[in-house]
Amino acid sequence: MSLSYPRPHRPNPARRLAAAVTTALLAAGVLAGCSGDDGPERSVDAFLAGWRSGDLQAVGLIDPVGNKLPSAEVAREIKELSGELAATPPTLTRRGEPKITSDIATTTVQVEWNLPGQTRWAYDRELRLAQGDGDQWQVIWEPKVLHEQLTKGDRLALRRDAGARAGVLDNAGKPLVTPRPVVRVGVQPNGVADLKKLVKDLDAAFKAIRPALVPGVDLADLPARVAKAEPGAFVEVVSLREEAYLQIKPRIYDLPGTKFISDKIDLAPTREFARALLGTVDPAQADDLAAHPDRYVVGDLVGHGGLQGRYDERLRGGAGLTVVVERPAEDGKWEATGTELFRREPQPGQPLKTTLDVAVQNAADGALRAESRRSALVALRISDGAVLAAANGPGPTGENLAFTAQVPPGSTFKVVSALGLLDRGAVTVDGPVNCPKTFTVDGRSFKNSDNFQLGSVPFRTDFAKSCNTAFAALAPKLGGDGLAATGRALGLEGQWDLGTDAFTGKVSAGGSPAEQAAASFGQGTTLVSPLAMAGATAAVARGRFEQPKLLVDPAPAKPAPAGEQLKPESVAALRAMMREVVTTGTGSALKDVPGEVYGKTGTAEYDNNPAHTHAWFVGWRGDVAFAVFVEKGGASTASAVPIAERFLRALPTT
Asked: Per the database record, which ranges form the NTF2-like N-terminal transpeptidase domain (predicted)?
């Protein structure tokens, strides 16, 4: 269809001549659509460039009835119509040559928007031009040039729908985080009789919850929030797990002004449950929005720390995106018209399947619950290296001490030293090894805990009673790097790939005679994590090293290869000695624990003050190997061993 636009009638001989020539060329079938320097394509390209830049001064613009339009007005209207997409103008491409009918040219333009989430929205629009005086081609502007369903006053807007967040699964494939009952505790301002007293009473009640809420409930801003709220509003104070709420319900339910709403929130089985390993899922924080403005918007759920943070994109999935048309309502606010121009459906996240065992993790968390010092407990399945539990205490700290601590192992490292000595034939379990009160190497004096001495006793007794001086004396038999070599045979210092951060240890090697003596019982420069020691302990129980495994899906790309078989006679002897630690040695507090428990205690100095020590216990029962660590725990028999006992008694024996 041919359109004409009114213009003042001005006889133009040149125009009449051009028309005659055009008619002749059409009759001959040789007219090109828009060839030549004066064709409409130059105006089309200038308009497309000006659309993107916001400067249309190089383009002649008219409305559909032929009225001239100021370039600045059209540029402003394009920006307003683009709405929430204005900050990222589309890529505009002319498709082919314009077609000319009389004094109207028509061309197709591809409009391609780059939307958040690397989403492409492309469509074709028809652009028309009219040939004005002086043979100049003028762009006919109207809102539907931008999109066929836009009219004046409209704008484009984005609507975002978050995908369903996937869960972190346990070793049975069940979600660890599921909807669990909570009670939202709040205050209704017009029901409060004495706000100062209410705050005091609530604070005392929250502090009475056991295990304690860490961090505690901060009520400092509650008076100000109540003062600003509407009289009948619900001013939320805290959401409590149902079991925590029931502890203090008698104390807070009848307080004037308190209100309670039952709800369900996605939560782990308990507040402590593998918290540092799993991480948390929270509404997007200011830092998240600033760091990833193209990924998150206010209200999004974001993983922070642990597996939730590391695998946030996988778990979160892809947000759905819809481009809609909005126009002003009577009150001037933008409202959707119901017209959708583009939709990308949300994509659900992909779950993470872990090796965690709920019963074992609960036992580990429970064992640490009464510990006030920073502590950790790691449990592995001996048969395949699966991580069954990773507990950290106290409080919901984000640091996964169980995997990433870098601390001296103390006498638990006698497991490594003893294996190295047995492998080299330097000792036998029943051969006599002197255990004096002190032993000096290069002017450095070594002593035993509480300055005990055993005299000349079988090596197994030195091990069971944890004699430092005996091991210091035997250190030269390991050589400069013998301890490190044995440690590596048990997986220490290895390149492990668990799918999360883990410290695999650093074993002393090539040091002075005094350093070698200290390293023989886990002092000196040797550093480990609870996970590393649990892995080494499992290797002794199994007979060879197998890298601990945490993630099943997605499986880590480069797990460490399995180690070579350990010498059967050496590990058999070492196992017997670790059993003796429990039956007659430093771990004898565990001898009445059901089942056969094997282990080794450890007390590790961490600075120049011998009174400052970390506490350890490593061992196994059945198919579960474990390591307990208590930072600044003092004597292992007073802190680490009782934790091990609580763990083993709570651990399922089937």
From this structure: 40-154
What beta strand segments (E) does 305-401 contain?
320-328, 334-344, 352-354, 375-381, 387-393
Q: Is residue 651 helix, strand or coil? A: coil
Comparing CA positions, the residue from 625, 588, 604, 646 lying closest to residue 464 is 588
Q: How far is CA 509 from CA 388, 423, 490, in A?
A: 32, 18, 16
> In sequence order, which residues have a C-beta less than 8 Å from that of residue 473 and are 6 or more positions away?
433, 434, 439, 517
What is the distance between the alpha carbons of residues 565 and 539, in angstroms, rounded to a whole number? Answer: 9
Q: What pLDDT is stored for residue 396 in this prediction?
A: 52
Do strands 91-101 and 137-140 pair parallel, antiparallel, or not at all (unpaired)? Answer: unpaired
- Which residues on adjacent β-strands are paired with residue 441? 444
Q: What is the pLDDT of residues 479-493, one digit of tens each?
A: 989 999 999 999 999
pLDDT band of residue 433 (cuts 50, 70, 90) is very high
Beta bridge mates, 183: 240, 262
650's enclosing H/E stretch is: helix 640-650
The first and second tokens of residue 647, run together, are: 């763990």
CB 505 within 8 A of CB 604: no
CA-wise closest residue to 274 among 359, 201, 335, 217:
359
The pLDDT tens digits of the residues spanning 167-184 come to: 999 999 999 988 889 999
User: Tokens 């946030």 label which residue?
Assistant: 312
Position 19 pLDDT exceeds 60: no
Give the pLDDT score at 215.
76
HEC sequence for 54-67: CCCCCCCEECCCCC
pLDDT tens profile 84-93: 999 999 999 9
CB neighbourhood size of 337 (10 A): 14
DSSP state string for 147-194: -TT--TT-EEEEEEEPPPPPPEE-TTS-BSSEEEEEEEEEE-GGG-S-
Strands 352-354 and 551-553: antiparallel
The total of other beta-carbon atoms located within 10 Å of residue 108's CB is 14
Whole-number Å distance between alpha carbons of 456 and 437: 12
Q: Rounded to whole angstroms, how far apart are CA atoms 251 and 288?
A: 38
Residues 6 or more apart whose Cβ sits within 8 Å of residue 322: 158, 159, 160, 161, 340, 342, 343, 344
Q: What is the mean pLDDT of the chain?
A: 91
pLDDT above 70: residue 505: yes
Asked if 32 and 105 touch (Cβ cutoff 8 Å), the reply is no
Alpha helical stretches, state H, 543-614: 568-583
Do residues 40 and 129 touch, judged by C-beta distance below 8 A? yes
Q: How far is CA 44 from CA 48, 108, 560, in A?
A: 6, 10, 61
Q: What is the pLDDT of residues 363-400, one digit of tens each?
A: 999 999 989 899 999 999 999 999 999 999 885 567 89
Q: pTM for this one?
A: 0.80
- Cα 605 to Cα 117, 517, 523, 612: the distances in Å are 52, 14, 7, 6
Instruction: Supply the DSSP symbol for 349.
Output: P
Tokens representing 108 are 């197709």
528, two tokens: 């480990």
* Concatenated DSSP letters of 1-16: ------------HHHH
C-alpha dihedral over 13, 17, 20, 25, to 10 degrees? -160
497: left (phi over 0), alpha (psi -120 to 50) or beta: beta
Rounded to a whole number, what is the largest CA-CA distance in the chain?
Answer: 127
Q: What is the mean pLDDT of residues 323-337?
A: 94
